[in-house]
Specification:
By secondary structure, the protein is an all-alpha fold. It has 14 helices and no strands. The radius of gyration is 24 Å and the shape is globular.
Length: 365
């Protein structure tokens, strides 16, 4: 349903499942029948009903699409072409796993011990939460079909590049504000979130967050490459990950400690993006909006420098560390947004497109 832009139907199916589970749990509980088998039966039954509802909604959409006329120059890809893309992207994913956080956690446990593993796992969990709610990740089921449609619908590379750059900059715009805040208050933030277990680890968390900069663009670049028929580029780009484990080992031997896996994760994503961008720029004329990206990162860096120069001693009278962090977050994000308004990382056309979604001129950056 995602590629067909039927998120509403998917939501109906999901809500139906959750509602059925809730209703039958209440009914079973009222008769004293709630046990492990009963809960499993309820969940299985609700899932079957939800699947049936989703299938019916999908069939209804297919019937509506039968009357749509395809582009006269469009030819349906062969099954062999589909499998070719699928196998290449699957291989690219497997190669990427060589420097994934899961694999590196095992390396840390083996080489640096359980205490370092606990810190690495905690910071990785925080990092994963941030990554999960980046705009490009959270809205990917909407962004990907839009990228494909913009390319095959007559817009070509120009429209594909325009949409990919806009989605990438929006994701980076949100991420940069968090990075500026972590740079300023990372130690206190990790201390509060960990209950004081991991003190003085703010810079390490900042390293994790910096690795999200190339990660936030990776899915978009993969989609662009697949859309224009360059899936094999992703395989070669992912192959760069094969050098990341040796890199981790060399850095650990050089006493980099937990910085070794953090650097490997960031360098791995950066190497992937760099190779894909180089190839599609050279062969297909794709151009990233580097000027807009530098404006976003520059605004974040300048906001941090301004925040670092502010006298925060007066915050010592605040009732809790959490309230101090809240005030610092408001100050640093407000400064960042103000600088973004001055530097304008988004073009006039991009602002108009975003404001068109809200029907108001609310996006001013």
């Amino acid at each position: 349903m995602g590629p067909l832009m039927r998120q509403g139907d998917a939501r109906i199916s999901l809500i139906a499942r959750q509602l059925l589970i809730l209703v039958f749990l209440v009914l079973f509980n009222s008769f004293g029948l709630v046990d492990v088998f009963g809960v499993a039966t309820i969940e299985a039954g609700a899932s079957i009903v939800s699947f049936g509802l989703g299938w019916w909604l999908l069939e209804r959409e297919f019937k509506a699409l039968k009357d749509e006329k395809a582009h006269p120059d469009w030819e349906e890809p062969t099954l062999r072409a589909h499998w070719g893309v699928a196998c290449r992207m699957y291989l690219a994913h497997l190669l990427t796993l060589t420097y994934s956080a899961q694999v590196l956690t095992n390396v840390v446990m083996r080489v640096l011990g359980t205490e370092a593993t606990a810190l690495f796992g905690f910071l990785r969990a925080l990092n994963d939460q941030v990554a999960r709610y980046l705009p490009a990740t959270l809205l990917f089921s909407l962004i990907r079909p839009k990228l494909v449609a913009s390319y095959v619908g007559g817009g070509g590379m120009v429209e594909l590049r325009r949409n990919a750059n806009l989605a990438g900059k929006l994701s980076l715009f949100a991420l940069a504000a968090l990075i500026a805040f972590v740079a300023l208050s990372g130690d206190a933030l990790v201390g509060v979130l960990s209950g004081g277990k991991f003190a003085d680890t703010g810079w390490l968390f900042l390293g994790f967050m910096a690795g999200l900069i190339p990660f936030s663009q990776r899915q978009l670049l993969e989609s662009v490459a697949v859309t224009i028929g360059r899936a094999s580029v992703c395989v070669w780009a992912s192959a760069s990950g094969l050098v990341m484990l040796p890199l981790v080992w060399v850095l650990i031997q050089a006493d980099f400690g937990l910085w070794a896996p953090v650097i490997a994760i960031g360098v791995g994503h950066l190497a992937f993006n760099s190779y894909v961008l180089f190839v599609i720029a050279r062969r297909d004329g794709y151009r990233a909006d580097w000027f807009g990206v530098m404006k976003i990162l520059g605004s974040a860096a300048l906001a941090y420098l301004i925040g670092a120069g502010l006298p925060f001693e007066w915050l010592s009278n605040m009732p809790s560390k959490l309230s101090v962090l809240l005030v610092q977050a408001i100050l640093i994000v407000s400064t960042y947004l103000f600088l973004g308004w001055i530097f304008k990382p988004f073009s006039n056309e991009e602002r108009e497109r975003i404001n068109g979604l809200f029907k108001k001129q609310v996006f001013i950056w």
